[in-house]
């Protein structure tokens, strides 16, 4: 890894290892291997041994689980500066979820031995990793709460608002990559047909707009009302 690569990766890793000084972070990344995954490629498989983690330098990854019946549920998306595979790396267990490159993903892969040695020497980095684990746990709790909603319209509204809030836009577009209606369904726990029907109804009411099948939020207040009170069309 070149000095320029170190600088780029350190910038991307700022969310997780923001407390590290330049030399310490560079020393860690220098012991890693650069990885590139094309859009749609698998990064990790649920159940595989977790001997490494990935610091995302560029791109967006999708984290999901698939039920025994074959139903896929998207749990979260991770972008530049976040880490993937940290749970299995820390506890030595199997991967707890599938991870796929939603867009092309580049990052630095670090083995368990390298990371554990580094965390022992730099406890401030452990605190940063624990903070991300807590954020992931909070997100999972919110996802389970949403999944328990019986009103499908409210569930979809919550999903749209959460995605828009996460990515700072009026569109559910992780890393600038708009989600298809099928992908929205996987995130909200609904069928693509159910998502399509509700989005078309909301489009007629001016709550959202649909362009080439992609969604933009026009009236977030109305969407919040649906999230809180349910959809009369449910």
TrEMBL record:
<dbReference type="GO" id="GO:0005829">
    <property type="term" value="C:cytosol"/>
</dbReference>
<protein>
    <submittedName>
        <fullName>Transcriptional regulator, Crp/Fnr family</fullName>
    </submittedName>
</protein>
<dbReference type="InterPro" id="IPR018488">
    <property type="entry name" value="cNMP-bd_CS"/>
</dbReference>
<feature type="domain" description="Cyclic nucleotide-binding">
    <location>
        <begin position="16"/>
        <end position="136"/>
    </location>
</feature>
<dbReference type="InterPro" id="IPR050397">
    <property type="entry name" value="Env_Response_Regulators"/>
</dbReference>
<dbReference type="InterPro" id="IPR036388">
    <property type="entry name" value="WH-like_DNA-bd_sf"/>
</dbReference>
<feature type="domain" description="HTH crp-type">
    <location>
        <begin position="150"/>
        <end position="221"/>
    </location>
</feature>
<dbReference type="InterPro" id="IPR012318">
    <property type="entry name" value="HTH_CRP"/>
</dbReference>
<dbReference type="InterPro" id="IPR000595">
    <property type="entry name" value="cNMP-bd_dom"/>
</dbReference>
<keyword id="KW-0805">Transcription regulation</keyword>
<dbReference type="GO" id="GO:0003677">
    <property type="term" value="F:DNA binding"/>
</dbReference>
<dbReference type="GO" id="GO:0003700">
    <property type="term" value="F:DNA-binding transcription factor activity"/>
</dbReference>
<dbReference type="InterPro" id="IPR036390">
    <property type="entry name" value="WH_DNA-bd_sf"/>
</dbReference>
<keyword id="KW-0238">DNA-binding</keyword>
<dbReference type="InterPro" id="IPR014710">
    <property type="entry name" value="RmlC-like_jellyroll"/>
</dbReference>
<dbReference type="Pfam" id="PF00027">
    <property type="entry name" value="cNMP_binding"/>
</dbReference>
<dbReference type="InterPro" id="IPR018490">
    <property type="entry name" value="cNMP-bd_dom_sf"/>
</dbReference>
<dbReference type="Pfam" id="PF13545">
    <property type="entry name" value="HTH_Crp_2"/>
</dbReference>
<keyword id="KW-0804">Transcription</keyword>
